[in-house]
User: Fold this.
Amino acid sequence: MTEEAHKRVPGVTWMTMIRALRTTDAKRYFASNVTLDASVLDRTSRGIKAVRAYFVAASSLYDSLKFTHETVSGARTFLEWEGRAFGKAVGGITVLVRSKSGRIAKIRLYLRPSAAVHQFAAALHRLSAKSNNGRSH
Assistant:
């Protein structure tokens, strides 16, 4: 086998974790007080439920997404990605910070270009308002 064949495929582990957010396995990968900061959000999202809501909504906005590079340095994982959203090219970086227990404690997500940041923020706001209106009190 070539050296290339032994390299990790970028984003595979992260996507497994994201899929786990929809199951009871989420606590296996994420700290209960996990935080998410993103260039498309006005404030920090806190807790597994809030992080799940973000990724469910955000994933519906992408036409495609591919991780192109992954680097692990100590407790941090850096994922570079690119794709398409709203019919346009987008890209960014996701930084994951693990706690001493090995669970994801912090997520930092940065999107580019700035026009996409604004479009995503507006779309997420609309989706959030729509889901909040559908809840019974």
